[in-house]
Write a structure and sequence with these properties.
alpha+beta, Alpha-Beta Plaits, Arc Repressor Mutant, subunit A, 3 domains, six-stranded mixed sheet
Length: 365
């Protein structure tokens, strides 16, 4: 009985309230405490890497004969530890299929990876539908220290929260789908219709996680779009919102995409960092000195302005698609980064806009 009471007082074990494990065990403890036999159950910790503890509870252990009893319990603990770890790895790995499908969605226009009909067919099992409304929300979770350090702890916690969120979304928000981003331990909500009660739902999820797991959930919301091919832009805006978002109605854990002029965004940086930021971003493309470099810079700017669409860029500049591809590849080589990557596009667009305005001003002077 003493051992069980200590377990229930342990903070890590109380975190399991999210999946009602503690409630179930409390009922078992109540049954034990109602008896007059203090040694009716023995509790053994199952040692494994992870944040959430597991215990083997053996009832009427005194009926087992020693040393057979000790050997059997030891073997049971070893088998359970292996099985639990295997199940954790399997559950975490299963998320890869869902993650891969979302990547297909946001790259649907990159070299025509998958067309819309293919996406709809592949997405049937995820309840992905044809709609005139899509909106991406990125959710992040952290504790007061930032998150967990140990990888197995992060994976276990991430999978637990993911499964819980997925279950809640399916019941609370019609048409909403949850996708994982395991590399950054983020949760991606894809809405397929508007919801008047969205903010209340997001607030409830945050409150539950904070109360049960002492974790803080923050949301970053991109603008709605009207077709499948534009989902990537809502996602890109959600990413940018993580850095430049704004709050509304005094709710600081929900950030919205901030419609700002590019120079307003750049001026968020200290002045003494702007030049360094520009040169690190654009290198020789910042202030081109020859016609070839100017062509590369102009192609890059047009390409980014047209949301990395090769065909539209070629039509705008009256050049061949292959020429666009070649120039974009050259720009990537010069800058040492994939210019089509969503995480790089904002930085490049800011730098190009700033240097273009600055260059025109100095030229006119």
């Amino acid at each position: 009985i003493t051992i069980l009471k200590n377990i229930l007082d342990d903070q890590k074990f109380s975190d399991l309230k999210l999946i009602n494990t503690k409630a179930n065990l409390i009922r078992e403890v109540a049954t034990i405490e109602s008896t007059e036999t203090p040694d009716i159950a023995n509790v053994y910790p199952i040692k494994m890497a992870g944040y959430y503890p597991y215990y083997l509870i053996v009832f009427n252990a005194k009926n087992l004969k020693y040393p057979l009893s000790a050997m059997a319990i030891e073997q049971a603990i070893m088998i359970l530890a292996f099985t639990l770890y295997k199940n954790l790895r399997v559950a975490y790995s299963l998320l890869s299929n869902e993650e891969e499908f979302f990547n297909d969605i946001i790259h649907s226009k990159s070299y025509e990876k998958l067309n819309e009909n293919q996406l709809l067919f592949k997405g049937e099992k995820y309840k992905f539908k044809d709609s005139d409304f899509y909106q991406v929300i990125i959710a992040t979770v952290s504790n007061k220290d930032g998150f967990f350090i140990d990888t197995s702890v992060m994976e276990e916690s991430y999978t637990l929260i993911y499964n819980w969120l997925k279950n809640k979304l399916s019941k609370d928000i019609e048409g909403a789908i949850l996708f994982p981003n395991r590399g950054k331990y983020e949760y991606i909500f894809l809405l397929q219709k508007p919801h008047d009660d969205l903010i209340n739902r997001l607030t409830t999820y945050r409150d539950i996680l904070h109360k049960t797991l002492q974790l803080n959930m923050n949301y970053f919301i991109g603008n709605p779009v009207q077709d499948i091919g534009s989902i990537q832009y809502s996602y890109r805006e959600a990413l940018e919102t993580m850095e430049f978002g704004e709050s509304k109605d005094n709710i600081d854990f929900i950030k919205y995409y901030l419609q700002m002029d590019t120079f307003d965004l750049l001026h968020l940086l200290p002045k003494n960092q702007i030049d360094n930021f520009i040169m690190n971003s654009l290198k020789t493309l910042a202030y081109p000195k020859d016609e070839m470099t100017r062509d590369l810079r102009n192609t890059l700017k047009t390409y980014l302005d047209l949301n990395c669409n090769i065909t539209d860029t070629a039509n705008t500049l009256y050049i061949h698609r292959n020429t666009v591809k070649y120039r974009i590849d050259r720009c990537s080589d010069i800058l040492g980064q994939n210019v089509s990557e969503q995480n790089n596009s904002l930085k490049l667009r800011l730098s190009l806009a700033y240097t273009e305005k600055h260059f025109k001003r100095t030229t006119s002077e």
